[in-house]
Every structure is written in structure tokens, then in C-alpha cells.
Amino acid sequence: MTRPPLFKRSVRCMAVALAVLLLTVTAAWADLLQDIKDKGEITIGTEAAFPPFEFVENGKIVGYSADLLELIMKDLPGVKLNRLDVPWQGILPGLAAGKFDYIVTSVTATKERYDRYALSLPIADATVALLVRKDSDIKTAGDAAGKVVASQTGSAQLKALLGLGEKLAAEGKSFKDVREYVSFDEAYADLAAGRLDAVAQAFPNLADAVKKRPDAFRIITPPFGPAVYFSWAARKDAESKSLADFFDAGLRKLNESGKMKELQMKWFGFEMPVPADALPVPVQ
Q: Which residues form the signal peptide (predicted)?
């Protein structure tokens, strides 16, 4: 029996409407945390070359962040942790490209990253300072004028160092040279060898460098630039919100229970009070 044209159009319209409805419902239900629970596996991106936050020891990623992550993962029973160790330059692009579900490495909370990613509650202070040789004539950050300075390529610490250079330029001064390194360990080696005069890095990391080589290095205090924090990061989309909220809840619990400070004493030798309610909006 031949159906009338109006009936055919009605059927096609209903099919299209149903398809749109299914797509809408699927999008509304997209939930990365639930997907991870269903799959039984989470993929975490890490740059394990940032002691004492995260580094490799005896073939295993260890450090302050590793301990925090291990405690939080107890609230995801049955989920296997797949932690990928990649260079810093690939961390945030890898998250944006969907290579990781989440980032557990020390991401300095800058305004640009705050706008683009779902940064977690603070895990530590990240205010930048200078590391110099113990016999250096540099006494303040301003004394770095005329010196060879360095930091890590693409890092917020390099950006802060360049900001210090702009401040010096306003006073008619400048660095002799600004060098970029793939890893801070390479910069520390060149500093010790006399090929550099100062390295800009977050204060907690410098404290660890001095702790390991008290005969070679010292820190210039006070740190320069505004107060900033280290965070972890998720993608800033509706699907990832449940996972970002999960890690924030875990960090808040560890902060308020005092466990976070206990781990800071273990890995840094001092406490770094950080907000437990929200990440302060970065000023730069």
C-alpha cells in the first residue's frame, strides 16, 4: 500500500527529532568520573622531574603529589591508576587533547591557565624566588641585573623572571642573558658549574635544592612577584566537572584534616598554609 506523502514527511520529522533528543540526552549524561568508574581505569598526566613534588625513584613516581594522589584514590576503589610521565611541554596540551583524564603535577596557577583549565584547590605555595651559588654577590632579586639568569621553557617561573626583567628595565637595568632549559636539574647543574648566575624557580622547589646541596646553593629572599599557588588540573568542560569536583573534595579533606601539612613536613621540611575553600583568582 502506498502511503500518502504527508505521512512520510511526518515519519522523517519524528526520526530527526528522536535523533536530536538522543544526542541531547547523551550530552547531558556525559560524566567523565562515571566513565572512569565504569571503565575501572583513570589516566593521569605527570611530569615526574619536579622534586620533591613528583619524581622517579627506583622506577616509581614518588613525592608529595604522589602521596596526596594515593590518599585520594582510596575514594575510587577498584579503579586502576595509569600514570603517564611526560615532559612539561606536553602536559597541558596533552590534557586539552584528551590524552589524560586529569593532571597531577605542579601546575602554577596563572590567570591564563585559570581561564582555560579547571585548576584544583591549591596544593602548595608557588611564589617564585632566585637560587644562586653560595658565594654569589647577589643579595636581592634586583642584584640579578647584569647577570646570566635562567628558568624552564614554557614555565610560569620563566614568565615571572621575564616580569622581573621588565621591572629592571624600568629602572634602566637589564639581565646580561636569559636562558631557557627543558628541566630545572640541567639549570641547577649549570648554576653549580658557574655557567649561570641565578635560576628562577618556585620557593618550595628551591628549598629542596638547597636541602640536597647546602654547600653549593642558597636562596634569595624574599621571593619576588605576587603570591601564587601550585594546583592540579582538569579540562574546563561539562564532562570533566564531576572529576574536577572529585579531586577538589579529596584535597579539601586532606587540607582540613591536617594530612596535607603532615605531608608538607615530610617532603619539604616546613608547612605551607594554602586555602581549603577555593583557589584565589591569579592576578597574572
A: 1-30
